[in-house]
Amino acid sequence: VQLVESGGDLVQSGGSLRLSCTASGFSFSDYYMNWVRQAPGKGLEWVSGINRAGGSRGYADSVEGRFTMSRDTASMTLYLQLNNLQPEDSARYYCTREGRYNGDGMDYWGKGTVVTVSS
Fold it and tell me: Cα(first)–Cα(last) distance of the chain, in Å?
C-alpha cells in the first residue's frame, strides 16, 4: 500500500491550491479515504473524508465551505481543493486510508505535503 501526496505550496491568504494523493497497492474503490492535517507544533486534525463511491463527504467545521474533497477511481487519485486559504490552514496535509473493519482506524498514511499560507 502506498499513498503519495502532492500539490502543497506557499500561497497568499485568500488563495487556492489543489492537493492530490495517488494510491497504489490496494483496491482504491473499496476504501473510505480521509485528509488529515498537522500544523507546526500542534496535534493532528481530521479535515475531510469521502465514502467509497465518492458521493458522500464530511468536513471539519474549520474548513466547511472552503475545501472540497473528491476522488477518481480510474486514476486511483484523491483530491482536496482548498479555497480562500487562511494562515491557520498552514500545515502538513496527509492522505489516509480508513480500515475496512471496526476498530481499524486510519491504517495507512502518506508522508504528507506542506501547505504554507502567508498573511
Answer: 37
Classify burial at 103, counting beta carbons within 10 Å of its beta carbon; exposed 0-12, middle 13-18, buried 19 or more: exposed
Query: Is-contact 49 95, C-beta < 8 A?
Result: no
pLDDT at 110 over 90: yes
Tell me, what's the pLDDT at 28?
Answer: 97
Contact present, 26 and 49 (Cβ < 8 Å): no
Evaluate whether 33 touches 73 at the Cβ level (below 8 Å): no
Q: What b/e string do you get for 82-100 counting C-beta neighbours within 10 Å, with b at 16 or more?
A: beebeeebbbbbbbbbbee
Burial class for 113, CB neighbours closer than 10 Å (0-12, 13-18, 19+): buried
The rounded distance, in Å, linking the Cα atoms of 42 and 39 is 5
pLDDT digits (tens, 9 = 90+) for 67-108: 999 999 999 999 999 999 999 999 999 999 999 887 789 999
